[in-house]
Specification:
The chain is an alpha+beta fold. Helices cover 27% and strands 25% of the residues. Helix 13 runs parallel beside helix 15.
């Protein structure tokens, strides 16, 4: 299967449950004939922990003293800035409950012919054997979880079960069951301990044939032909009107609901595809079989498809969390938050290129919903206008609250620029122009630097102080320092980008002049791009984050074409970088940067570490660490971006074909890529050459580059060194010679 995966048995762990989602609701499907469980998730489900009303402490009056101390050489001065403020994790993400359809025990031990499957093109998860079949999908049309079970003479107990691992002991739980002419209405109300907030799950059960009666905490069905459960979750204070909630659920049959949902999902998922020439022998294997052979082309093919499917399914009202949109445990690692200093941007990194504007829209919703909080952060901590993004958010509050000596994430000022970059890339792939909301945010980012950049180094350049490179520190200093390379890159990019997109702003000229006064990047004694451009700070190379290579990826400010010497220094920094704790995001971040620097062997090594490190569950959702340790979406969602970047790269005025082809991809086809100069691209390649078809949506003049050893044999003018002149609506075919 290219556009799906399957298993020969039910899931026995929630991590292996197949996934469906519409960006609001998520479903985790076990597919067990005897106990057909579906864990229901919702993006709004975060447990109050006392952090919900916290704001950043007022530290601005101490900022000047901190800057003086750091500039004078006190390498530990930042350890006291924010001391006494609590380290409070954001509200943790948690599951709602599981719907259970429990059939008569002892009746279904034999499961010959069983198959559990997820169809990426529709979002439908099915399980079946003999006459029994279960179908689950999360509707994009009706915003409900739909579970449909068919079995002649179906006899089962149905319940909404809130008892999941890690659930607090003092949850206030209430239930309601009402029989109806065609089945029943079920409701489960769960209140958080010590809070007026809670959430309610409502289900309409439609039963075809047989008898229905109240039994225990749910209903019992006897002798039915089929059962359809339609479920929705709402979170809020007080007790909602159950009648209104039930009345708001759709009443159509399963087939009608699926028909209404399927085109919406299929259109989005089907915009891009990736196939490998040698993958056919493994395409019919189950996911678990493929995972046992990390070198299989079919595995990379399927993980690309699964990554796009899961990314799309997790993105709607919000972008994906650390766990996407799914968890089966209330004790979610790192609160199941949006970690913004690396993980979130890595997860959404394929959205623009892989034709998933739905993901970018979800990312924009998170940003736009928190700009006021980001303004509070800038004022309270730095005494500045503009915006400063937090390193963690629960999706509700954007206030900075992570104050810690070892990880002083409140000192990270690059976050707004970093988080706005995916929105810029999406604008470039579509209209080429930032909309008013994005332009406003770009202006706010520049206003912060206009106020914040008030100090100079001894050479008269602006100094970024205090400065922090997530989540690393110099070998000979504390975490809070001066001139972290990521901060310099973000400041320069924020100022110049705002001036470009808001040229009429009164400060546009000032922003350009401030950007010109920022210090140059530093190349250290090892010939590597330094993580801190400040004299005397020594490198800590063995670290999972690669924040200082922000100018390479995603900014493209350092590249082999325009800045070859700096690109060489960046490559040296990549060579010296360790993998520290073997986290998946570290490996794939390295791969993205290696692709930009045309290092195919390093891309291959990073992919190999993830594919061979037992990072993927049978669900094809990933883990944070090897051996499936800590459920986490970083690898699953980032892998498609690595594949695309190794085969096609684009900037507003440049196209790079086959820059860093991994060893695992000697030949294949990549279709539906969106370029940042407004063209769709299909690519077919092998050892004998390649063909790229460009379908421009707007006029563009593009500098064409190819990987080492490739010869361009056809351009618009027949001149391989001439820029491509693209005309909207006129397809162009490029042919490359053998590698």
């Amino acid at each position: 299967m290219i556009d799906g995966t399957w298993e020969p048995g039910p899931a026995t762990r929630w991590e292996d449950a197949f996934l469906s989602g519409n960006g609001r609701h998520g479903a985790m499907v076990y597919g067990d004939p005897a106990d057909d469980q579906v864990i229901v998730n919702h993006h709004t489900l975060v447990r109050p922990n006392g952090s919900e009303d916290l704001r950043a402490p007022e530290l601005a009056d101490r900022l000047g003293r901190l800057q003086d101390a750091l500039l004078s050489g006190d390498t530990k001065a930042a350890e006291d800035f924010g001391a006494g403020s609590p380290l409070v994790w954001v509200q943790p993400f948690h599951p709602a409950f599981r719907s259970r359809v429990r059939r008569t025990r002892g009746l279904h031990e034999a499961v010959a012919g069983y198959r559990r499957e997820v169809d990426f093109t529709s979002g439908e998860v099915t399980a079946s054997y003999e006459a029994w079949r279960s179908s689950v999908f999360v509707s994009r049309a009706d915003d409900v979880v739909v579970q449909h079970v068919t079995d002649p003479g179906l006899t089962a107990d149905v319940v909404l079960d809130h008892v999941l691992p890690g659930a607090p002991a003092r949850l206030a739980v209430g239930r309601s069951t009402v029989l109806t002419p065609d089945g029943a209405h079920l409701a489960l109300r769960v209140g958080y301990p010590g809070s007026e907030l809670g959430y309610t799950g409502v289900t309409v059960a439609r039963v075809d044939g047989g008898r229905v009666f109240v039994a225990g905490e749910g209903i019992r069905i006897e002798g039915a032909r089929s059962l359809t459960l339609t479920t929705r979750v709402v979170r809020g204070p007080g007790r909602p009107d159950l009648g209104e909630l039930w009345a708001g659920l759709p009443r159509e049959d399963h087939a009608t609901l699926l028909d209404r949902h399927r085109p919406l999902h299929r259109t989005a998922y089907g915009r891009a595809s990736f196939t490998l020439r040698d993958a056919a022998p493994g395409r019919e294997l189950s996911g678990s079989e493929l995972l046992r052979d990390p070198s299989s082309p079919a595995l990379l093919e399927r993980l690309f498809a699964a990554g796009r499917y899961h990314l799309l399914s997790a993105s709607g009202m919000l972008p994906p969390r650390l766990t996407g949109l799914w968890t089966g445990d209330w004790d979610t690692a790192w609160s199941g938050a949006f970690t913004t200093n690396a993980n979130l941007n890595l997860q959404v990194s394929s959205a623009a290129a892989a034709g998933l504007p739905e993901v970018t829209e979800a990312h924009a919703a998170l940003v736009e919903g928190q700009l006021a909080d980001w303004q509070d952060n800038a004022r309270a901590i730095f005494g500045a206008r503009g915006i400063v993004a937090p390193s963690h958010t629960d999706g509700v509050s954007g206030h900075t609250r992570h104050f810690q000596r070892a990880y002083p994430l409140h000192l990270w000022t690059a976050g707004a620029d970093w988080l706005l970059q995916p929105l810029l890339e999406n604008a470039e792939t579509t209209t080429g122009v930032a909309d008013s909301g994005l332009t406003n945010a770009l202006v706010e980012a520049a206003l912060f630097y206009e106020d914040f950049l008030s100090r100079e180094d001894p050479d008269g350049h602006l100094a970024v102080v205090p400065s922090y490179s997530p989540e690393n520190r110099p070998a000979n200093a504390s975490w809070g320092t001066v001139n972290a390379t990521m901060d310099i890159a973000a400041a320069r990019h924020a100022l110049t980008t705002a001036a470009e997109h808001a040229p009429g702003h009164p400060s546009a000229g000032l922003w350009r002049s401030l950007a010109a006064r920022l210090p140059a990047y530093l190349v250290n004694e090892d010939g590597a791009l330094a993580e801190w451009a400040w004299p005397g700070l020594r490198e800590t190379y063995d670290h999972r984050h690669l924040s200082h290579l922000y100018p390479v990826w995603p900014l493209d400010a350092i590249n082999p074409y325009d800045t070859p010497e700096l690109a060489g220094a960046a490559h040296r920094a990549l060579e010296l970088r360790g993998s520290e704790n073997d986290s998946a995001h570290g490996h794939l971040h390295q791969a993205l940067i290696a692709a930009r620097l045309r290092d195919a062997s390093r891309v291959s090594a990073a992919l190999g570490a993830v594919l061979g490190g037992d990072f993927f569950h049978d669900s094809l959702m990933s883990a944070h660490y090897p051996f499936r340790n800590v459920y986490n979406a970083d690898a699953a969602h980032t892998l498609p971006a690595v594949v695309i970047e190794s085969l096609v790269q684009s900037a507003p005025g440049r196209l790079v074909l086959l820059p860093a082809v991994p060893a695992a991809c000697p030949a294949g086809e990549l279709r539906g890529v969106r370029t940042r100069f407004g063209a769709h691209l299909d690519l077919r390649w092998s050892e004998d050459g390649a063909t790229a078809v460009l379908r421009p949506t707007r006029d563009a003049r593009v500098d064409l580059r190819t990987g080492d050893g490739l010869v361009l044999t056809e351009t618009s003018a027949g001149n391989p060194t001439a820029p491509l002149e693209l005309t909207a609506g006129v397809d162009r075919v490029l042919t490359l010679g053998a590698r």
